[in-house]
Amino acid sequence: MRYRRVVLGTFIDRPNRFIAHVRIDGRIETVHVKNTGRCKEILIPETVVVLSVSDNPTRKTRYDLIAAYKGDILINIDSQSPNQAFGEFIPKCGLFGDDPTVYPEHTHGDSRFDFFIVSGERKIFVEVKGVTLEFDGKCRFPDAPTERGLKHIKGLEEAIDEGFETYIAFIVQMKGMKEFSPNYSTHEEFGVELEKAYRRGVGVLVYDCIVEQDSMTIDSPLPFRFR
């Protein structure tokens, strides 16, 4: 997935989940943050950030904060980019057949999954989670308790009981990581439920991404482990 126009800035602060103040070419701009998560380990004062430029002249905020440098690592923090990148990845990856039919945002029971894929006799639900938290080359999810994520895992387990094939895909929005694991210290129940789902047959996919200032592309599988 690609952004049309991007510029660099310097992060100043984040008054709330939705906006941040960024210095761009010497002026201070209020920008929209495309991730309502914490991102406290990434959005630190004086961090170099990447912003996409809106084409809508009537918008209150002209820029969207989409990525940030953490040392030498460029981390995409746009919460919409994992789904967009995975949607592009589905027909090319070979995991879901040669010519899959893809239905984004599909409801099943009381769950709404990111993708429903039909490929021959296979009927597949996939839930996508973006991963931005890293420490010492290891990445973790979630960075805060996620009842919504927990509900999705349980929904995937229920779909297996009804004969569907199901996956949860963790898209690591950076390159250079060694491994992925659930963040038990932040949300113990999520990690335990993911282990249970894996044993029951829910597929766990973990891929890193090639992240550039104006794009993010799913690249290579990463090893994952439970504790």
Task: Give a brief rundown of this model.
With 227 residues, the chain is of the alpha+beta class.
3D architecture notes:
This protein is α+β, with helices and mostly antiparallel strands. The protein folds into 2 domains: 6-76, Beta Barrel (OB fold (Dihydrolipoamide Acetyltransferase, E2P)); 81-221, 3-Layer(aba) Sandwich (Trna Endonuclease, Chain: A, domain 1). It has 3 helices and 15 strands. It has helices spanning 81-93, 147-161, 188-200; strands at residues 6-13, 19-24, 27-33, 48-53, 63-70, 73-76, 101-108, 111-119, 122-131, 133-135, 138-141, 165-172, 179-182, 203-212, 215-221. The strands form 3 sheets. It has a 6-stranded mixed beta sheet. Strand 14 (203-212) and strand 15 form a beta hairpin. Helix 2 runs parallel beside helix 3. The longest helix has 15 residues, at 147-161. The chain starts with 5 loop residues before the first strand and ends in a 6-residue tail after the last strand. The model has no long low-confidence stretch (mean pLDDT 96).
List the helices and strands and how they pair.
Blueprint: E1 6-13, E2 19-24, E3 27-33, E4 48-53, E5 63-70, E6 73-76, H1 81-93, E7 101-108, E8 111-119, E9 122-131, E10 133-135, E11 138-141, H2 147-161, E12 165-172, E13 179-182, H3 188-200, E14 203-212, E15 215-221
Parallel strand pairs: 3-5, 9-12, 11-13, 12-14
Antiparallel strand pairs: 1-2, 1-4, 2-3, 4-5, 5-6, 7-8, 8-9, 10-11, 14-15
